[in-house]
Amino acid sequence: MNNENGNIVYHQSVVTKEDRHKLNQHKSCVLWLTGLSGSGKSTISMQVEKELYERGVHAYVLDGDNLRHGLNSNLGFAPQDRKENIRRVSEVSKLFVDSGVIVMAAFISPYKEDRENVRKMFDAEEFVEIYVKCAVEECIKRDPKGLYEKALKGQISNFTGVSAPYEAPDHPDVILETDKYSIKQCANIILQYLINKKMV
């Protein structure tokens, strides 16, 4: 961290996270959706956001592609860029959680180490790792953005599941098998998890 001569001081907010929970009448957390491209992370996140909104819950989706249009537009897909991508997203997610919002982070985030580093930034129940599990063969069949086709032709390098590794979570908090369940069913699994944990 660059803090020469101690000139950067962290300012503690007068309004606490717990104050915001009371105001919102729900707790905050990050729902970290990890999985291959085309597994359904963004679609599920949007569905969960919609259903939380309808319940009066403050929620927001941080989508991998969307952030690469702005905050992370200067990053590529080499391993060090992927790490920095996740580092930035984790910092933004922490701000959302502190603000009292349930944030869905929909990112391939292929490396276990990076996801564990994100987990360490949060209190125990504030980080929910959700493995959006789908066989690469099924993702290739879906290929909603045509990326697998390009990757298989060698037109895209460092593509997760084809020319770059994906390290599946060992002990995710939630597993969504999107080749077996619908988007609505997957969203309901997440909502039920939040209810069971008394987050909403």
Give a description of the structure.
With 200 residues, the protein is α/β, with parallel strands linked by helices. It has one domain: P-loop containing nucleotide triphosphate hydrolases (Rossmann fold), CATH 3.40.50.300. Helices cover 40% and strands 14% of the residues. The chain has eight helices and five strands, in the order H-E-H-E-H-H-E-H-E-H-H-E-H. The protein has a five-stranded parallel beta sheet with strand order 2-3-1-4-5, sandwiched between helices. The longest helix is centred in the middle third of the chain and has 20 residues. The chain is globular and about 55 Å long.
Would you kindly provide a brief summary of this structure?
This protein is an alpha/beta fold. It has helices at 17-24, 41-54, 64-67, 79-98, 112-119, 136-142, 147-152, 183-196, and strands spanning 29-34, 59-63, 102-106, 127-133, 174-177.
